[in-house]
Amino acid sequence: MAKMIIETRGLSKRYVMGDQIVDALKDVNLQIGEGEFVAIMGPSGSGKSTFMNLIGCLDRPTAGQYFIDSQNVAGLDDNRLADIRNKYIGFVFQNFNLLPRTSALRNVELPLMYAGTKNRTQKARAALERVGLGKRLDHTPAMLSGGQQQRVAIARAIVNDPAMILGDEPTGNLDSRTSEEIMAVFQELNSQGKTVVIVTHEEEIAHHCKRIIRFRDGVVRVDEKVEKQIIASEVLAEMVSPEGERVSVGS
Fold first, then answer.
1. pLDDT per position as a tens digit, 136-181
2. What is the pTM of this model?
3. Superfamily (CATH H level) for 35-47+83-237
4. In the chain, what is the straight-line distance between the N-terminal and C-terminal CA atoms, in Å?
5. Handedness of CA 240, 179, 249, 34 (dihedral sign)
6. 186 contacts 208 by C-beta, under 8 angstroms
7. What CA–CA distance (Å, rounded) separates 195 from 193?
8. What are the residues whose beta carbons fall under 8 Å from the beta carbon of 17, sequence distance 6 or more?
């Protein structure tokens, strides 16, 4: 039995908007084990983004419990939540969220600076090499493609060696070929033992994962294993670049 990284018990979130009450999440009970690769899906207003904000310690539930690595974090104050985020969670966002005038290396160093970590440059360099950007350390975001920028964001997410990576539509701004490259990076990280949870609207992207959890109206409607996982490296092997060259995952 895999160690549980995420466990929710009766997790609920209610918003009061004027004279309206919106139950964004209703009594959600879920477990995500160490080393899983999970897609969170659902239409707008389904509760998937609320769920991701809660498990990412960016918000607090109205009711219920939420455990990260057996620690109940539902009632922690802002400082303790920040500590949990820094220790356990690496975030990857749709819009990359990189500092525009700062090199890839310095962007990746930022979480290490906040944590007061030593050997920051060495660790940031290793994270960039891990995602295939070891030769672009001094490039600013404007000098990188969208896919390369997202790799910098992934390197930044893993540089503290978190227990899990949370991705919010990480391929949402990318074309099909670049999306496959990014999913190949996630799959490689998952094969190395990282727990990866992503929100996506795209069925094909979800089927690169090993499990799909579907929300609707604030509850989990479907929780299913992916029977035939799409392997990004195999898809890329059949693709060619606009210049007619085979695509390389580490380019």
1. 999 999 999 999 999 999 999 999 999 999 999 999 989 999 999 9
2. 0.91
3. P-loop containing nucleotide triphosphate hydrolases (3.40.50.300)
4. 37
5. negative
6. yes
7. 7
8. none
